[in-house]
Amino acid sequence: MSAILRGKPWPLGSTVTARGVNFSVAAPRANRVELLLFNSSEAPSPDRIIDLDVQTHRSGDYWHVEVEGLKEGCLYGYRVFGPLAPGGHGFRPAKVLLDPCARGIEGWSVYQREMATGASPNTDCCLKGVVCERDRFDFDAHPRPRHSWQQTVIYELHVGGFTRRSNSGVAPERRGTLLGVIDKIPYLKDLGVTTIELLPVQAFDPDDAPPGRDNVWGYSPLSWFAPHSGYICGDDPLQARHQMRALVAACHDAGLEVLLDVVYNHTTEGNQNGPTLSWRGFGDRVYYHQSSNGDYLDVSGCGNSIAAHQPLSRTLILESLRCWAIELGVDGFRFDLGIELSRGEGLKPLEQPPLLEAMEADPLLSDLKLVSEPWDCGGLYRLNDFPAQRIGTWNGRFRDALRGFWKGDENSTWALGQRLRGSPDLYEGKPVNLGRSVNLLTAHDGFTLMDLMSFNGKHNLANGEDNRDGENHNISWNHGVEGPTTNHAVTALRRRQQRNMLSTLLLARGVPMLLMGDEVGRSQGGNNNTWCQDSPLSWMIWSDHHCDRDLLTYVRRLIAVRHQLRDLFTPLIAHNEKPQQLSSDHEGFWRQWHGVELGKPDWASWSHCLALSVHRGSQGAVLWAGFNAYFKAMHFDLPVAATPWHRLIDTALPPGEDLPAHPEPWTPPGVPLEARSLVVMVAREYTNTLKL
Predict the structure, then answer these.
(1) Hey, CA dihedral for 436, 440, 443, 446, is it positive or negative?
(2) Is 669 helix (H, G, I), strand (E, B) or coil?
(3) In the list 8, 396, 548, 658, which could disulfide-bond 653, CB 3.0-4.6 Å?
(4) What span, in angstroms and rounded, lies between the C-alpha atoms of 90 and 103?
């Protein structure tokens, strides 16, 4: 039998050594720990049990041991003994626990979630950790693209749903996997996005859902270190990390960044009635916010909230970030309900959250893109004052303003102007710095853009909750008919509105994010909460029969315009706003606001029209954009151009003409805007260099 050595408390998790494998796990309040070694993923009982002696195998909060002769691929778990916490929960030695730092997971074929609750043993149906290599990503061969925030266009996608369809052009065995995404990189490159944001790929429990449904989105983490097994080709758990690296490497080679949507605000263990799978069994009151009597405090909406202010939780999350960034090569993270991570004892919001401070100070994380939701389910919403300067935030106010304006709501024109400027009203009177605001119209959570144009209300009956789930405040408009229609006037207006919305998003100052499929008119049948729908309802569409190819061409050209004219639309330093006669700078850009008449914007509550122009010093205007959300056509005056105007965009024109490859010269002193349309004029000097 192989020798049992003292081992080391660092690194956490399981690490291959020259002699075998070192195991280390935190369990500060435990009085006994057993390491279980299994022969196979389906083994009903451990092949070997190693009792960790307190005197030999404990250092501070950490239990550790080195076992000679073990190798990569070894399967293991833990039993942890200690007193029950207040409320009757805490240590459950009958349950086999998954190492929180395990880089791989096995045992899915026998796993039974319900057996991790109650007092009965679950040894025959538990998940096991897998000893994996911990190599660093090869950045020399596949360097990070490092796109500036000014260049960045984010595309949010679900790994499973992106290539699941049989007509995706992906081989059957690769559909719905990390490797399947590699096959669609040419599509993403052709679209023009610079960065893909993957919905959770950290291992999650599909069974964390009501009976008869699956957890599909993955906002139910089982591990913060292991890739999700459902996204892997084949059944070898050791391939998971290699396939994740392969995706990142292929993206880097193509100039695409990879961001991960990560869930550190809660876990799949739920409240005190949930299963004991990992964190809870090692340190219930260490990892989760609880009251003095043991009740779980929940601002995630999922039963528990991670106590990120606690040192051990903080250590685990930082280790997870380093694992994905340094070992697997990803370029950044988007934090689900990230503001929850700023809460301290009793869920009190902290001005200097320890985790966020440590994250910003970590040199290994210093060159990553970091983005967060600025809200949680406890009502905390911190946009301009998010307590971490290097972490940008999803700008939900941007989304609401654009939806309200193009829907024709009152009091929406002034808000639109603020969002186009960079939301100074939300950031203490100054346009937000690039990277601090991620602008969005749609995301996985809510209507797709097509459905935003097609439904007044949500249609979520397929989710099995009697349409109670999902957001009720959607600021959507069906344009006269609920759902699909053969009414040509309605469908034409919906197509125009899609172009209006996407143009406003991509030409506004900030970092834009697109939702998977919005560029081809993907619909979810009015379902605005497809978290449990692993079906065509939530999958990406690829066939000509379903895709709006004209819209796809429009979006490709629109993104190209943004990239090539970024100094006009999303400058590093926001444009000044001052009258022309006061401008002594012959080259510097400045902006002026208009209504139908020059220099007379109408900010009244009843206004539905707005225009802006960008001027170069005293030489004249180089850009003009008009927005008409009124139900009647309007005629706008044009400022004098530095060089003759060319019409770049007119969403009222037929497909192909709405954003032509070669903008047409425009000589009249004004321009008509049809009802609910958008027009962009650009000076000839800029159109001469455009490549669409």
Answers:
(1) positive
(2) coil
(3) 658
(4) 24
Residue 88 has pLDDT above 80, yes or no: no
Please determine, for residue 579, whether its predicted confidence score (pLDDT) is greater than 60: no
As a whole-number percent, the residues of the chain with pLDDT over 70 amount to 98
Does residue 345 carry a catalytic annotation?
A: no
Q: In DSSP terms, which residues pair with 84 in a beta bridge?
A: 90
Higher pLDDT pick, 252 / 585: 252
pLDDT digits (tens, 9 = 90+) for 495-544: 999 999 999 999 999 999 999 999 999 999 999 999 999 999 999 999 99
Mean pLDDT value across residues 343-358: 96
Residues 327 and 13: beta-carbon distance below 8 Å: no
Which among 257, 336, 340, 518 is annotated as catalytic? 336
pLDDT digits (tens, 9 = 90+) for 384-402: 999 998 999 999 999 999 9
Q: Which residues pair with 645 in a beta bridge?
A: 683
State residue 454 phi and psi, 5-degree precision. -120, -10
Residue 169 to residue 167: CA distance in whole angstroms: 5
DSSP SS3 for 106: strand
The two structure tokens encoding residue 126: 């538990």
CB half-sphere exposure, 400, CA atoms < 13 A: 10
Query: Tokens at residue 584, please?
Result: 């002594």
| Contacting residues for 690 by C-beta, under 8 A, at least 6 apart | 560, 561, 564, 565, 648, 663, 682
Rounded alpha-carbon distances, angstroms, from residue 19 to 12, 67, 339, 365, 459? 17, 8, 43, 31, 59
How far is it, in rounded angstroms, from Cα 398 to Cα 435? 14
What is the end-to-end Cα distance of the chain in Å, rounded? Answer: 69
Out of 208, 269, 298, 373, which one is annotated catalytic?
373
378: which residues sit within 8 A by CB, 6+ positions away? 299, 340, 343, 347
Yes or no: say if 155 and 502 are a contact pair by the CB < 8 Å rule: no
Q: What is the DSSP letter of 578?
A: -
Mean pLDDT for the chain overall = 95
Taking 60 as the threshold, does the pLDDT of residue 424 lie above it? Answer: yes
Sequence length of the chain is 692
pLDDT reported for residue 212:
87
3-state DSSP call for residue 555?
A: helix
| 95-109, 395-409, 565-579: segment of lowest average pLDDT | 565-579
The dihedral sign for the CA sequence 652, 421, 397, 521: positive
pLDDT at 83: 85
Tally DSSP H helices, then E strands, for the chain: 15, 29
Angstrom distance (rounded) from CA 237 to CA 76: 13
Cβ atoms within 10 Å of 213's Cβ, excluding its own: 18
Q: Which residue matches tokens 């989304």?
A: 399
Q: Cα separation of 2 and 68, whole Å?
A: 5
pLDDT of residue 87: 62
Q: Three-state DSSP class for 233?
A: coil
Is 317 in contact with 266 (CB distance < 8 Å)? Answer: no
Task: Tell me how far apart the alpha carbons of residues 505 and 509 are, in angstroms, rounded to a whole number.
Answer: 9
Query: What is the 3 state secondary structure string of 508-532?
Result: CCCEEEEECCHHHCCCCCCCCCCCC
Q: pTM, whole model, 2 decimals?
A: 0.97
Angle at 514 between CA 509 and CA 515, to 5 degrees: 155
The pair of three-digit structure tokens given for residue 615, joined into one six-digit string: 């001027």
C-alpha torsion 680→681→685→690, nearest 10: 30
Percent of the chain at pLDDT exceeding 90: 93
Residue 585 scores a pLDDT above 60: no
Of 537, 528, 540, nearest to 465 by C-alpha is: 528
Active site residue 336: yes
Element (H or E) spanning 159, and its range? helix 159-162
Which pLDDT score, from 0 to 100, does residue 659 have?
A: 98
Query: The tokens of 690 are what?
Result: 């455009």
